[in-house]
Amino acid sequence: MKKSLLLLLLAGAMFSCKKEEAKKDYKPSFTAVEADTLVSEEISIRAITIDGDKAWYAGSMGKYGWVSLSGGKNFSGVIAKDTIFPEFRAIAQTKNDIFILNAGTPAMLYKISKDGKNSKEVYSETGEKVFYDSMQFYNDKEGIAMGDPTEDCLSVIITSDGGNAWKKMPCTGLPKVAEGEAAFAASNTNLIVKGNSTWIVSGGKKSRVFYSADKGKSWKVYDTPIVQGGAADGIYSADLYDENIGFAVGGNYEKAESNKSNKILTTDGGKTWDKAADGQAFGYASCVQFVPGSNGNELMTAGPSGIWYSFDRGTTWKKILDENIYHTIRFADNKTVILAGQKKVVRLKLK
């Protein structure tokens, strides 16, 4: 495996904005990064999940599989239906199974045994506007996936039997979307679940947060100050450290260098948001994740300007990896990061 060492000069100049948050005694938890390549092949990956010592992935051309994080065997598979090789953009798991869901029509949701031996289609949907973006499980029985509107609400499908059967929620039980409001299948991170709580972030002409405290039975909707108004504007990714502290990133992938109004922070569970590092650091980003065990202070993002890190809740940022090919991030632990994107899955060890 190819390795490289990148020193982080965190004591040097950092991108910053003037906020009270910056006055707190924040400290970075690492000073160097070691990177090694786990997968290198013709695939675009936007969906990964960590399962013990395995990092599962799903991507383009119907490809999916896992890479071992402990030196064990890897596995790869391909799903095709008739002449269709799905573009998988969402992945989730229960104790025994992995679930992958494609973007576009027909929507195809597959259940895969964790030994990789069995796969089964458990949900499908056709229609001109069908486009699913993200999927998560609350527990080993209950799961949820979301997608773009096919009527006047976001598409939401749920399962209560461990993913064997899924049903679409009617719009009568969901908030109405604004004209031109949808979502982005950028990194499987515009749907977040913690306990019974669910957050969905939208984008486009309107970019908001849809919140449910009861696994999708009832919803509230909150406005955000992120850039919005154009079809490619809005939130592309969000993460909640706990029920209160959250961060969202996005912008406009067609204006990838623009760093105005593309990073926002909440400390009240998504009800209100403040801009962070406005006009500073990176532009468009496709994924954001909190560093585990960081009290909600440390963040990492991926996008076309590279991998960026903040240790003060998004007030200041430092680029830690210059490669611009990564779409999504997951932490295996607080010192191990898995990156995936164009033709690569890479592990970062934080030292």
Q: What's this, in brief?
A:
The protein has 351 residues and is mostly beta strands. It has strands spanning 3-7, 32-51, 54-59, 63-68, 75-78, 88-93, 97-102, 107-113, 119-125, 132-137, 143-147, 155-159, 167-168, 181-182, 191-194, 197-201, 203-204, 208-212, 220-223, 233-240, 246-252, 263-266, 274-275, 287-290, 299-303, 306-310, 318-321, 326-333, 336-350. Helices cover 0% and strands 48% of the residues.
Protein model, in words:
This protein has 351 residues and is mainly beta. It has one domain (26-350): Methylamine Dehydrogenase, Chain H, CATH 2.130.10.10. It is built from no helices and 29 strands. Strands 1, 2, 3, 4, 5, 28 and 29 form a 7-stranded antiparallel beta sheet that branches. It has a 4-stranded antiparallel beta sheet with strand order 6-7-8-9, with no helix packed on it. Strands 10-11-12-13 form a 4-stranded antiparallel beta sheet, with no helix packed on it. A hairpin with a 3-residue loop joins strand 6 (88-93) and strand 7. The chain is globular and about 50 Å long. The two termini are 18 Å apart.
Note the total helix count.
Answer: 0
Q: What is CATH's topology name?
A: Methylamine Dehydrogenase, Chain H
Return residue spans where pLDDT drops below 50 for at least 5 consecutive residues: 1-22
Oligomer: single chain
- Looking at this structure, what is the CATH superfamily? YVTN repeat-like/Quinoprotein amine dehydrogenase
Find the count of extended strands (DSSP E, 2+ residues).
29
Estimated structural class = mainly beta
SSE string, helices as H and strands as E: EEEEEEEEEEEEEEEEEEEEEEEEEEEEE
CATH first level: Mainly Beta
Overall pLDDT, averaged? 94
Strand content: over 45%
Label the overall shape: globular
* CATH architecture annotation name: 7 Propeller
Radius of gyration: 19 Å
